[in-house]
Fold:
Amino acid sequence: MASCGDRDKSPAPTAQPQPQRRSIEPPAGTVRQLPPYGIDAAGIGPYKLRQRLAAILDQLPSGPRIERYEIPSVLHTSLIRAEDDHVLIGGEPTATVASSTTAFVAVIDGDVARTESGVHVGT
Structure:
């Protein structure tokens, strides 16, 4: 009679080492979209019409660059320069900038923004 007497003497299976778990940290600072931006009916890239000016100011990396133009009974507007003065954002000023909204967004350089079909400033 034959029997399998070596069954108890077989080596125990070795545990495979688990790979070290990676932890990816979120990027430091603010992550923002870079030009060229898409132009659509709602605005240009991250700069949208009827958006609060305070939200736009928070997006700008180098701090606010605001100019106010006021001619009594004629013109009252704020102008924010963004993207190294290649994007102009305007809005009607109110008592606080936080409650003002964007009235227009203008691009003055063809390398900053373009439409989906490729139309840009100077086309």
Observations:
- The two ends are 95 Å apart (CA to CA).
- The beta strands are 37-40, 43-44, 47-48, 66-71, 75-82, 87-91, 102-107, 113-114.
- The mean pLDDT is 81.
